Amino acid sequence: MKKRNDWKGVINEYIDFLPLDKKGSFITLLEGNTHLIFSEKLSKKFNLNVYYKFEGLNPTGSFKDRGMCVVISKMIQDGYNAVICASTGNTAASCAAYSAKGNLKSFVLIPEGKIALGKLSQSIIHGAKVIEVKGNFDDALKIVKEVTTLFKIGLVNSINPFRIEGQKTGAFEIVDELNESPDYIFIPVGNGGNITSYWKGFKEYFNIKRIDKLPKMYGWQAEGAAPIVLGKVVENPETFATAIRIGNPARWKDVLNAVQESNGKIDMVSDEKIREAYEILAFEEGIFCEPSSAASLAGLIKANERGEIKKGSTVVLILTGHGLKDPDSATKSSNKNLIKIDKNLKSAIEYFEEVEKVERKNSY
């Protein structure tokens, strides 16, 4: 892949694969170009080649920017002046930022009291009108769909196919960096747009013979919000991984299609296992992702324990968003590392000697 200073954003880099008017205006914040991070520790532990695709490095801190730059560009090309979305946070933040860049008015509907602070603050600072719905994400999305049938306001949720078109570029980047297809993709599943997008991207590269095989798609839901796994709508989904707290995914059928066509799997992991994976990523890998991202690692641990992953395989874990999106989860997980001492050197010395057992320098 190109170095970041040569990168022009996903539309300009992959315009030949996108259904946009090449002569029209494009809105970009130079999204994409999120390189794969090799995990020496997990690769050795599991006898696999494990990579993280950390989408938290996108402009607004999540993978949503890939699709949002495309759908906002399409809205402008089609003459819209305003857009709207329902969101658990990341879509709202991305919609607000790209709308600001494109001089569009943006409205975001969020579940009351169910959105992480970092995501809410992004939407507000970018000028979006934030509307709290007394219900869950599914209630908010239903309202959004109805509003867009009554008013000339563009819908930019992942049910809009242009979002899928932009997000599929994540698959292109993986292949362009590895120069081949990975054997497995592990990815969190909420509304289902991302796994749908990645599968579409891999198939498009396969069809033009850029790759000679397709990866198995492993999607992971949280146990408290696992409608696809359970085979029924979850009326009141609950999980601390707020980005995937969705009880009736809009892309339900597409998710099943992706896992079935790829000979993959859709499964679920507990909040406890997601939190453990969240802490492994932060404490051992140096990667601060939002909780929902860690579902992919929790899923890999679960699948590996069951012997489902062939040794020596290349596995890419999609980490969908940055940890700063949800600072409360971080402080709750790591408050044991918040140490208090008195404001003097003696107190500091006692801590390092008696608690941490740090060796003194010979000269002291």
How would you characterize the overall build of this protein?
Helices cover about 40% and strands about 15% of the residues. By secondary structure, it is α/β, with parallel strands linked by helices. The protein folds into 2 domains: about 5-60 and about 165-330, Rossmann fold (3-Layer(aba) Sandwich), CATH 3.40.50; about 65-160, Rossmann fold. Helix 3 (about 65-75) packs across helix 4 (about 90-100), helix 4 runs parallel beside helix 5 (about 115-125) and helix 12 packs across helix 13. The longest helix has 15 residues, at about 195-205. It starts with 9 loop residues before the first helix and ends in a 9-residue tail after the last helix.
Short note summarizing the structure:
This protein is an alpha/beta fold and 364 residues long. The chain has 15 helices and 10 strands. It has helices spanning 10-13, 40-46, 64-77, 90-101, 117-125, 137-150, 161-167, 169-178, 193-207, 227-230, 252-261, 271-285, 295-305, 327-334, 345-355; strands spanning 36-38, 49-54, 82-86, 105-111, 129-133, 154-155, 184-188, 216-222, 265-269, 314-319.
> What quaternary form is this?
single chain
Mean pLDDT: 94
H-E order: HEHEHEHEHEHEHHEHEHHEHHEHH
Major pleated sheet: 6 strands, mixed
The top-level CATH class of the largest domain is: Alpha Beta
**How many structural units, i.e. domains?**
2
Number of strands: 10
Strand percentage, roughly? 5-15%
Integer-rounded radius of gyration:
21 Å
The CATH architecture of the largest domain can be named as: 3-Layer(aba) Sandwich
Classify the helix fraction into a percent range.
40-55%
**Shape, per Cα inertia axes:** globular
The CATH topology assignment of the largest domain is: Rossmann fold
Low-pLDDT sequence parts? none
